[in-house]
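Pasting two entries for a bug report.
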Amino acid sequence: MTLDPKVQKIIDWRESIALLPDNHFFEIIRMYLGEIKTPFNKQKLIEELGAFIRKEETRKTLISLLSEADLRVISAVKYISNASQEKLFSFFSGAYSFAELYERLLNLEERLILYRKSDRAGGKTVIAINPHLEDDLEPYTKQSVLLEPPDYAELSYETPSSLSPELIASFISFIHKNQDLCKADGTFKKRTAAEIERLFPAKTELLFNLTKAFINLSLLREIPEGYEIDKNKFLAFAKLDPRLQYAYLCVASQGRFSRSGLARQAKLLLDVATSIPHGGFSRSIILRLAYLISEDQSDAMGLSSFGATSRFSSILNRAGAGSRDADSAIVEHDSDLSSILDRLIECAALFGLLTKKGTDVNGEAIFVSGTLFDESEKFEEVPKVLSVDAAFTVTIMPGLSLENLIPLMDFMELRQFDTAAVFEINRKSVMRGFDAGLSANKIFSLLKKYSSYEIPQNLEISVDDWSRSYSSATIFKGYVLQVSAENAAMTENNRAIAPFIAQKLATGIYLLSVESDEQAAGIIARSGLDFIGKIKTPEKNYESIGFPEIAVPEKTDRFDSDEEARPTSDEERAAHFEAMRAELEKLNLPVEKKEGLAERIQHKIILSPVQLRADSVKYERIEAGGMDFSGKLHIIEGSISNNSMVELQFDDRVIVGVPLSVNKTGSDATVLMEVMPERSEKLLSIGQAKFVKRIRGSVLR
């Protein structure tokens, strides 16, 4: 029988308490319920603790003492599946040191807000919210709590260059003329880089990333001379929404992916870009945003395993041993999985999906959604953005789609790219257009379609002249079928042969669009004719599979930094602390006991004066420094006994970890530590440590 999820969570919580070591179990009971009367029943005590938490006054006080930082950690536990200590550290990378996050988690456990349990699927220890408090926490644990708005230190006023249909088309024209643009290692040749800098000032980095994307999307086809444009595939690509085009280019610039992997990661990138509020997010917060969105989409059709094993979610999975997505494994050159999204942010800014708006007080870049996601400017149905002068120079202003521009690139040669793209029509470029299947009339038709003015007559005369020259001789290569004149009509109407006639060379002589002897023999066998010919095949048509269509998300304001609900104000929390300290001062207790209870007040464990009991406190020294060698040694040895972590401060570093053993050597001693979070073992000098602190052990550990 399947239990109600809420009931199962309560059972999990009770089990976690029951499995505590006895000293920790009794400590928590004494802290919140008072002295334990004998004989006692452990399960009964757990029920009493649950009843204590369910009291309205208890829940109200527990919630009221939560700070913004507390709510941020609790929200992360809520929205990160199977949240482990390591996952949370990765998620909050840069915001908390490992020791700071560890202590906050322990404190929230001591306050009964969080608890640890063993994940049934993976067997790892994960952190969860106390089910008795989930409903009370619901109004205060939103995803937006995890996405702090930036604190601007400087605004950026520069207008960065970005992708545009004109830039992509101009680069296509460049590749037509410069097929050998890359070295064997994929970088631009020196001559190519210089030519790109001349034609596309300050855009070399952008175009290098664009070239990698073209290759990985198979928009460029490798040939002996270098690369050539796969026009059919480019036209299919150009039919996509421009935002989706740029997302695909951005993802593909980082590696080669399968169709489904490409689609999933492009969708995540678009969702991230459209979810950034108007005030922007810093780079680290965008990484958090990406993970939260991928968690939301983990069960969506076509996006399975997004939150668990996608390459984007590796920002967290580097903390665990998640299995790799087969699609993601196709990426060819990413050994550091956790860096891919970080690098994608740079590329997204380069391509215009994101725009840098400034820097925060920590010097971190702040990004907003690119202008691509703003209300698009509406152009007339056939924008007249092209002009041709008498010197055959063509100027193209913004306004045409990539799909409109690609055919124009077949017969133009780039001269300069700036606000307007400037091209030249010459004999060589027009001959290339004829090779691509264009006629003189088609070239004139395209120019007139987008121009407000008449095409110069001398250009028409020249193109017609070049066309006659081009048509005066033709070289064919392929399979040729020759039949007698009296059988020509019958052959042309033969159902088996007619679909494969690529060109009628003369009466009874036909160039066939077949690619193998077997195919040719099969056609002839079905037709009943004998085969006569030699190998002269026409240009092959490369079939291209289209790109996966994705619904491009609209700009959303769900993460705009509106005022979040808060359980209480700083002043109200301060009033609680003052009231508890005043009650403590009334008690006649030994100094050590008072200090212990004062520390509990500070750590928000004391919810009411009833908990101010001397018998629930045991004095422990947890820090030592300076010349107090014996004190430092005592704290480390005690931490080994309690299986607690320690923090060692040296002149140039702070190290946190679990002490494993101590070796005394004359006037000094060394400690073998398992350093966190990397879990590597290091031998450290205790005497040279300026300060040693035991990180408070958890009663729920």
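Entry 2 (this is the one that rendered wrong in the viewer):
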Amino acid sequence: MSSSSPRSEMSSTAPTVVQEEIRHLQRTRSILEENPEGVGRSEEELVRELIQLRDDYREAKTEDRGSIQEQLNQLMALLDQHRAARSTASIDIENPYFAHLEVEEDGKRRHVFLGRATRLNHGLRIVDWRNAPISRLFYQYDEGDEYAEEMAGRVREGLVTARRTLHISRGDILRIGTPEQDWVREQDDWRRVSRDMMRLAGGEGAALRAGGPGARLGAGQVHRSDKHLPDIAALIDPEQFSLITAKNSGVVVLRGSAGSGKTTVALHRIAYLAYENRRFKPSRVLVIVWGRAMRDYVAHVLPALGVEGVTVSTWTAWARKRVTEQMPELPKVIADDTPAAVSRLKLHTATADLLERHIRRTKGPKTAAQVVDDWSHVITDRRALSRALGSQFGSRNLERAIEWNTQLTSDVAAWMDGDRTVDVRLDPEDDALLLRAWQLRCGRLGPRGRNLAYQHIVLDEVQDFSPVEVQVLLETTDKHKSVTLAGDTRQHISKDAGFSSWQDFLQRIGVESTALSTLEISYRSTHAITRFAIDVLGETDEPMPHTRREGPPVELFRFGDHGACVAFLAEELRQLQREEPNANVALLTPSANLSALYADGLRHADLRDVRRVVNQKFAFAPGIDIVEVTEVKGLEFDYVVLIEASAQHWPDTEHHRRLLHVASTRAIHQLWLTCVATPTSILPDVIR
């Protein structure tokens, strides 16, 4: 292997910053080749030597113990150095780092490179980005800033003289980012590009364009067909870094608008905790996400961050497994036709309060049968529920819910007595109440007598979970109560979850409001899309997020029938696929019937990669995804076309306004709306 790949040779025409970074990379690769990892004593060998010396010390004569103690001290120092430099992964010689920091201290300049592993020997200074003391200089200081930070027990003062991000692949530098501009390699030349293309957001195939006005999907020029963006860890801003590296105990609550990096911060926080704390085991980390698509995405991202073995699940799947473990006698089938009134009652905070009071006042054995009895009593207690829920629930809804619950609990009792002829199905919301009842009656959850004690829990989209669900999760943590909650009240679309405000929610789950942190910058969408998404909410107390990019206006296109709309989109999408083969487009519809109609129509138009997404099985790849709007929470796409923004499908309710807000903020670069019928009044006047 050559220490410098052909494309990374020096060029007299390359900008100075490019020439400097090529020299650094060539030197680094040369040292890595000449000094492969694994040479020298391993940590295990050092430990064995220490144990042997300890035994020798015990048996040695008094006059010999001094020299043995000196050897022990030397080995301990060597072991500490080894552990300080160890990483969760080996240095990749083809991509050894993603950032370069140059600092000046006491008149001397030092170069520090940030990567996914640490190497501090043979003249190299590559540190894992999770090594907070030194990496803090990169994340929290700009080029030209003076700093004073405590490191290794002493305060170090200096000046940040250079701060650069890099994209290195197969030993080649493909992109260099500086505070003034970025440089991208194209064949044997370097092209200057705008800094506003840098962002902290996921998304496969993001085209990263500036955009321009006009009825055209796409802006013409492809700015990133080669995807030469720096590692996402290089794009973390100071506020996000502070949250990622926060103390490893207690609850951290991340509030932020769509695209502000909440999920990214939460996942990088797991990677940081795993690196920073040796007691931290990924197998004892739980990530709960809203849907299957996000589950699949997160399960892919965490190993890429160097964290293997984390449990990633939806609440539904996790809770169902826990109920089956604790109460195997219960029926396994879950209903899919639960009335809305029943769902609201079971997730209502008043119902959870009644359950807690009932168990506190009622003596009983710590058994599954008693837990089921507690649950049955509370959800059928007409007098207590009527008094607790108040008039806002409605007497008619209450009667309907209690009638349903009475029949359900009767069927469950028959089933547990051995009657298998009864067709009994628990409601999805019962899992939370049953698990909470178990915790209150029996103690901690856990299979076969082994308590669940997660070292860290991440709950994404927390605004769409009920307080009782969150309480169940919080009580599965260990004594450190290390939890990250991420959410956005603007994206609250679950009608029955019971989320009202951050203050009420935090008070309800017993978390201090000081745990709440706000991410104020939205990196995903353009200013035009963000402005539109805020406007559809109507009156809101939430401030307008800060945005970093301009783009084309949001546009509404009206048609006489769906056939004309399909023909129009087919022509535009065909042109887009020719110009931007890496673009990922989402057509979001209000119903499965419309999804099928548009999928068939675009396939007949002979477009490439048209995918009708069912059960959130997204490809996360270039092409056209056609899916119902309710299925895309937490995801993002280069372009979004919202199909049939009509009054029929989008009545003017708070729920539909928030749902339209969520749909709009899935778009990175451009948002279109189409309508055959009368447009919904939710849309701002400027677009109707």
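Dev reply: Rendering is fixed now. As a check, the viewer should reflect this: The radius of gyration is 29 Å.
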